[in-house]
Sequence to fold (251 residues):
Amino acid sequence: MSTQKVAIVTGAARGIGAAIARRLADDGLAVAVLDLEAQACSPVVDEIIAAGGRAIAVGADVSDEDAVATAVDQVTAELGAPTVVVNNAGVLRDNLLFKMSVSDWDTVMAVHLRGAFLMTRACQRNMLDAGWGRVVNLSSTSALGNRGQVNYSAAKAGLQGFTKTVALELGRFGVTANAIAPGFIETDMTRETAERIGVPFDDFISACADDTAVKLAGQPDDIANAVSFFVDERARYVSGQVLYVAGGPKA
Ligand code: NAP
Fold:
């Protein structure tokens, strides 16, 4: 029987999630590349397999309880029981408070918070059975407050509390839970933000880079490296932490 560890990375068809999936596969894990549509995950899966790794594409909406259960069953049958969960799936529904609809509030809460809860709950039994597990949640510097993002900042701050509580509950079973709070990272999500505020993406990238201590725009691999650290066996004593990966200090 294989002792290869199995990871689920949500929202992994593109952007940060795709980089995380590739990195964990490079690290020797079998990876379930999960996104809303399985088909959208195929390029990432093909890349991992071409590089000699093991991966499958899984389609599921992380905010749907039945879809999450079915997805975890599929991963268990095809790759093995997942003991690493990276809750990365995310959406933006930005607006100023007075213009924000209930539906935009609910959508953001459902994907980020309910999604992380459902996926982590569905996999925790495997982690307990294995006496080992890793949960990594994608928070954001927006958790500290960001104009136009009451829903997103509340969800990302909520994920920090979720992370710390999972760390406390599951630590005795060999499970760590940590959060990564990226600053600006060049992806479709930040391209969408630039479009919303009417700034050309290149100008937005330059302005965001200038706003950091290191004067660089973040790349998906910058986040994948941090995930790789938290998932590593050697990170067993690091739990309940929020790591700001933002090119400089954040409070
Ligand atoms: P992205 O390019 O928009 O990718 C997000 C992925 O999540 C997409 O593939 C999307 O699928 C998928 N997704 C959305 N809703 C889903 C659902 N209900 N179930 C399953 N998958 C779903 O975003 P990103 O920039 O890579 O961000 C990844 C994570 O990092 C997010 O949690 C984001 O909030 C966080 N983050 C990003 C930044 C940044 O600067 N980019 C900064 C801080 C935090 P579709 O393509 O089908 O919509």
Notes: DSSP finds eight helices and seven strands in the chain. The helical segments are 15-26, 38-50, 65-78, 102-130, 150-170, 188-197, 201-210, 220-231. The longest strand covers residues 175-182.
